[in-house]
Amino acid sequence: LSGETYESWPLESHKTSAITTRTFAIKKIEEAKKTNAFFDIKSNVEHQTFKGVSSSKNIADAVKLTYGQIITWKDEPIFAMYDMCCGGVLPVHCRGIDFEKFPYLARKKQCKHCKECKFYDWNIIYDKKESCRRLSKFIKKNIVDIIKLEDLKLSKSKALRLVTIKVKIKLKNGKKIRENIQINNRVFRSVFSIKIQQKSSCFYPKLKNGGIHIYGRGRGHLMGLCQWGTKKLADNKWKHKNILQFYYPGTIISKIK
Questions:
Q1: What is the pLDDT of residue 56?
Q2: Nearest Cα to 220, choosing from 146, 111, 139?
Q3: Rounded CA Rg of the chain
Q4: Which residues of 20-35 are buried (b: 16+ CB within 10 A; e: fewer)?
């Protein structure tokens, strides 16, 4: 728990996180048993980060006060996804999750409680020279100018799906030609070094002063519990049960059987 939250945050937010991380761990243990995996959970940002035993009384109290409690859906532990900051993005508009299988992740109520987090909205600015260098490296041609971004396709969450980048290329004989580069979200993240662990995949680009400017929301996968939102709700005297109901609608808190 100490590796997934801040010790200075209020007790009620720690209780919320304790139940969430415990549920996530139980779910992963069940999955590992079914597949005969060598281990249950990865100790990194892909699963859960372990930083040793905490000396925080706040965290210890949160664990004791929620002992054995997990979040369930139809008597089964939920896939308790959580991230640092959802950026106000509605999970129901995000892609890549089977909401029929995990209906409690299809939250339709917007969270704006994480506005205090620096990742609520963010931007990355690459000037013309750096933008051309990165795209040149990607297509292995000498790009000297970015003319236009066109056919920009965004998801309902305003995340880039596809964009065509019209560029000017200088050939070895000195002649300049135009070419179109079509890039999806995954490739764009690779070209412009946008890691989900540091930002999110919910972003869109603009062309300004010849360079690529990127505007995004949130940090992480933007699903389930929003940690900074939880902190703010706890500051506002929400109880952990109500916080969990907000982020995982339709679920209940149960005891481990």
A1: 82
A2: 111
A3: 22
A4: bbbbbbbbbeeeeeee
